[in-house]
Amino acid sequence: MNQYKTTLAIAILASAGLTACGGSSGGGDDTPPPQTGPDSQNWQTDFSNTDRYSVTTSPAGFSLNPLTLAVNTTETVSAEFDGPFTTDAGQSVTPAAYFGAVDPNAADPDDDASNGGPFWDGWTIRDPNIGGNLPGSPQTFHPLRAEIEGGTLAPAGANACDTVGNGLEAAEDVAIFGVTFPVCVIRDGDLDGDFTLPNSHIFLLDGTVQVGNGDVESASDPSTVREDVLTIEEGTQIFGISETDPSLVITRGSRIEANGTADLPIIFGAVEADTSASPVSITDSPSDLGGRGDWGSLVISGYGEVNNADSNNQTTTEAVPDGVTRWFGGTDNSDSSGTLEYVILAETGEAFRPDEEVQGLTIEAAGSGTTINHIQITNSDDDGIEWFGGAANASYVVIQANTDDALDIDLGYQGTIQHVLVRQGANSGDRGIESDNNGSAFGATPKTSPAIANVTILGNAGNGGTADSNTMGALHREGFGGQVYRSVYADDSVAGAQFDEGCLDVDDELDETLEYGDVLFSCAAGSLVSDDDT
């Protein structure tokens, strides 16, 4: 039995008057042993102060609103956790005065967010063929259909790719909801300099497309790189061509300005296409966004701090095809990599090589100057969002039916995460949150210590077979610290589903900054995961 983990388990459950692992909340030595992690440092963390873990298990009057997925409970929030709470990078979060991601006073989702509905309604995809589908009527909802059929989103005329710039190749036109759009093919090098993708066109990514030149090793000096800006108009649709290793990479020093709206979100997805044809021809329907792992996704790199950096304050990415090396990181956690607002990332997570998939959204050391809100990630064949260091904040996020973790946090990330709804699909998913500091050096700095508030993680059964495929609410390990407030880890009672293993697992050593406040656990498999470390 790992005594360090047992100590944390007792501390968390003591606030609810419970015990774990045969221990007692009132006796014994609650000070864990010295760290024995791979970096061989000799530091200790004291979890004997149970006030740091305000957790309620099996909360009173607990239920989920079947229309909004808001949490109903007779438990009340404590003024102690009103905040604001600030990370080591100076980023602050003020928890909303309710448990979970969705305001319990939100109206029926048929009244969209602008009319008092839940924050996710009116701009997100609903598809019953996707696990963890969002509730509402109709069950199938494409957020651009009405705008396309009604003429709000209108296509450009013939030979329109020439009007976009840089001589983009014109593909064969394609019909979406009965309206024919011109299609332009984007290859690496086509987006050099400042560039705008208008919503009057459909765009195809043929292979990995980079913006800027900040991926090279020498770019640790910002004065050596271009500051290209890719602007994407609201309502623009961009598709990776399957089997071409497609991704869109914003290298450090450059920015993406993807400013969707609730009426016209920006959609990324995947299509099959005959690239040997002249012109290139799409061979399936762009309006079908129910695939999984059909393209890489969006990667945003910046000059923020990472705790596995070399002497030049940078490190290399795993989100690349074979034979490619790409660098990110620096010393500026206030760096800006641009804006993502009202953006849908569907069908992501292609494996470029074994065990090296691209996440739904990969954020590599992007700084706090980056704006990320109102994001939907659906059917990723890997994580939903993964932060590798930096301090980019994210809010109002929906993650559904990913096959790995929903929120993966590591390598010194110090931003804020708020208003996130995670709904695992049946036979997919892993952990709602997987949080590490550094697997090779638990005490590496900067420490992974985000401030997380108003997150709802709704569990379902995993795909089975191994412990790694079993689902749980959250896993903290490898020196992770940070703060979690007014969040909920619960079985998805609306779907009649539950986590395989329980609400929370803690492994290895954790940092003394870890704090839970006003957090609710409702997991039939137990509040704490029972594994070899318990």
What would you note in describing this structure?
This protein is mostly beta strands. It has one domain. Helices cover 4% and strands 31% of the residues. It has three helices and 36 strands. The longest helix has 12 residues, at 3-14. The radius of gyration is 23 Å and the shape is globular. Mean pLDDT is 87; it is low at 1-49.
| Secondary structure category | mainly beta
Q: Which regions have little confidence, pLDDT < 50, spanning 5+ residues?
A: 1-49
| Binned strand content | 25-35%
The biggest sheet, with number of strands, parallel, antiparallel or mixed sense and barrel status, is: 17 strands, mixed
Helix content: under 10%
State Rg: 23 Å
What is the overall pLDDT average?
87
Termini distance?
6 Å
Keyword list:
36 strands, disordered N terminus, mainly beta, 3 helices, 31% strand, 17-stranded mixed sheet
Short description:
With 534 residues, this protein is mostly beta strands. Helices cover 4% and strands 31% of the residues.
Q: How is the secondary structure organized here?
A:
Layout: H1 3-14, E1 53-57, E2 63-64, E3 71-72, E4 85-86, E5 92-93, H2 145-149, H3 161-164, E6 169-176, E7 179-186, E8 195-197, E9 202-205, E10 208-211, E11 229-232, E12 237-241, E13 247-250, E14 255-259, E15 266-271, E16 273-274, E17 281-282, E18 298-301, E19 315-316, E20 327-328, E21 338-346, E22 351-353, E23 356-357, E24 361-364, E25 371-378, E26 385-388, E27 394-400, E28 407-410, E29 416-423, E30 431-435, E31 451-459, E32 472-476, E33 483-485, E34 488-491, E35 502-506, E36 515-522
Parallel strand pairs: 1-36, 7-9, 8-11, 9-12, 10-13, 11-14, 12-15, 13-18, 14-21, 15-21, 18-24, 21-25, 24-26, 25-27, 26-28, 27-29, 28-30, 29-31, 30-32, 31-33, 31-34, 32-35, 33-36, 34-36
Antiparallel strand pairs: 2-3, 4-5, 6-7, 16-17, 19-20, 22-23
